[in-house]
Each structure stands twice: as C-alpha cells, then as structure tokens.
Amino acid sequence: RAVPSAGSPMYLKTVESVALGGGILGVCGMHPHHQETLKKNRVVLAKQLLLSELLEHLLEKDIITLEMRELIQILWNTP
Fold first, then answer.
1. Euclidean distance between CA atoms 73 and 79, whole angstroms
2. Domain of life here (predicted)?
3. 8-17 confidence digits (pLDDT tens)
C-alpha cells in the first residue's frame, strides 16, 4: 500500500482523522473485528512465531540492521 505524500488529499485526511482522535483506522487499516481476533489469538501466534523468519523479514524491509539481528539472536539465546 502506498503511503500518501505530504499535502495530498489522502495525507491531509489521515492527519485530520488522527488529530480528531479517529486514529489511522479512520482512513485505512484493519477492521475492528480483525483487530479483536488478533488480540484474542496473540499468544498462540507468538508461540508459533519463528524468530529467524521474523528477523529475516525485518532485515529485508530495512527495519533492522545486521548488527541488530545478531544482537537480538544473542539476547534471545541468553538464559
């Protein structure tokens, strides 16, 4: 999904929605029913999560660096 550029009508509507307390979901995002489903199942989802796959995804999306991934792996394996 493309991020609206500053000054575009969609960007202004998003800013307006957030300012009015509607949050991002007022414009785009998850249906409240889906949010509730995720909340109810978060423990099961977390237990099924493979750290290596998550870290690889975060690395590919440039959310974390190689150094951050290594540090997380070290901390995860520290008793």
1. 12
2. Eukaryota
3. 555 555 545 5
